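Figure 2 data, in text form.
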Amino acid sequence: MHGVLYQVLTTDAKPLRTLAPSIPAALERVVAKAMNKAPQDRYETAGQMQNTLLGIRAALSGATDSTTQRLGLRWTPLPAPILKLVTHAPLKWRMAVLIALAVVVTLLVLSPSEPEPQDARARSDAGPVAAEIPAISVALGARRDSALAARDRAVQAGALKNNVPAMVLGEAMVQASEQALQAGDQSRALSGYVAVVAQYHKAQQEALALDQEARRMIDRVAPVVQAIPTGPDAVNAGIYYARAESLWRAKDFTLAKVSAQSAEQIGNIRVLYPRMTEQERSGWEAFFREWDQITAKFTVAQFTVRGATAAATVRALFEYIPGGGGAPHQDRRRFAMRFEKRDVGWRLTSVSELK
């Protein structure tokens, strides 16, 4: 029971349209506002909520205000238990109930009601509610729902969390359409809703590209992390790798890549090549200091395994920008590499350049 109450107080309910996509977006916002955790952000009275729902029904059906009011204001009979209490209970019980009802009604009539602030009606985090939107045609309502559904798909793909350029532009476009709709310029609102669908689709594709890029980075780092011998380096790399996986699942693809790169940097050449000499270290440092923006492609030309040792001839193609700047360059080299199998896996034991 305590767990249920805690979730009610702290956890936001799922959007209504994730359970029933056919429900209008305006109705979803009404339900979200009625269930808001902050009391000041809910409807102040049941009448406000009723007027909003009547406005939605009028907008969707094209009914007039008078028709909507006639349909909405109906007599609701007393529940059977209360009616039985009033008609069959002893006289003194009925008198007590009537007196209590009279006191409640008197308090409700005499209690002052605070006027609604002017800016409260215009404020909305998720867009305007139906009461703030003039009556619209079914076609315009359908276009608006399509635009909001496209936005939901982009958000679910991670476009908003990763702040992709198309999502930023789409948010500005849909906000302009909402403002045009509230101002009564339905023609401009319609054109905006139609155009923003393609923009949100582009944002969704950009987010999916970031998703795949982050996933490739994490998959590339996994064997490097697994190859690090037991020790502080292995622990730190494992922490960064686990964080990258967690961020990727949360669709924070940019930070997931950064965390994966941090794990990869821990598994550096000194860890994977424990027998590197000081002369080799200085040579590699000079190699990377003279070149900038290096990309490398390695091709195994020959590979042989003999028991716990292996040898390989590797062709390398380096593309780089000189350290002092200038046009891109290419450099082709060949290396002879020797490996040794240990308890923690294969390790590089020597690298020499072939002329």
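Caption note: Residues 63-77, 118-131 have pLDDT under 50 and may be disordered.
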